[in-house]
Design goal:
Pfam family, one: AAA_18
CATH class: Alpha Beta
Helix content: 40-55%
Distance between the termini: 5 Å
Strand content: 15-25%
Order of helices and strands: EHEHEEHEHEHHEH
Protein name: DNA topology modulation protein FlaR
Number of helices: 7
Largest sheet: 5 strands, parallel
CATH superfamily: P-loop containing nucleotide triphosphate hydrolases
Oligomer: single chain
């Protein structure tokens, strides 16, 4: 895949699927800015995060998807994010095994608690436990709903289940 051919990339997957890692890699390699949808939902402040209003969130995302090139990653596949799928040249659905995602959630938590990995949120046991719930919810609901709701984009959806497929996608 050549960066000149693909300028708008939408990445979706469960917590621990590798969305942010892939978005950063594509951004660095191809010189395309990347955006995390969590940072569209939340306004990050040192004093504490503030959840944006629906209007603010929609306006910010609309501004991002109107730009010439982007990588947008996030689990969000609700109606407010539909424009990011519509405007994408390619939609990358990261779908590693449930056990791989579970391992990554644990590894991330340990690294963040040790200060070896940064987080945009306060790293607490409560959030850690929620990640397992989000992972299960995505497996049972998010994934099937995505494929049902965005079936009209099957020609631009690429499902990647492992590192081998990811490397093939990146360097074809």
């Amino acid at each position: 895949m050549q960066a000149s051919a693909v300028k708008r990339i939408r990445i979706i997957g469960s917590v621990g699927s590798g969305k942010t890692t892939l978005a950063r890699s594509l951004s660095e390699e191809w010189g395309i800015p990347y955006y995390e949808l969590d940072n569209v939902v939340w306004e990050r402040n040192p004093a504490g995060d503030r959840r944006r209003t629906e209007e603010e969130r929609t306006e910010l995302l609309d501004t991002l998807i109107k730009s010439e090139a982007w990588v947008i990653e996030g689990v969000h596949n609700e109606e407010w994010a539909a424009g990011s799928f519509r405007e994408a040249d390619v939609i990358v659905f990261l779908d590693p095994a449930y056990s791989v995602r579970t391992y990554r959630i644990i590894k991330r938590f340990i690294l963040q608690k040790l200060g070896r990995e940064t987080a945009h949120y306060e790293v607490t046991y409560r959030i850690f436990l929620k990640m397992f719930k989000w992972n299960k919810y995505f497996e049972q609901n998010g994934k099937p709903n995505f494929f049902k709701n965005y079936a009209l984009y099957t020609d631009k959806i690429i499902v990647l289940k492992n590192k081998s497929q990811l490397k093939q996608f990146l360097y074809q």
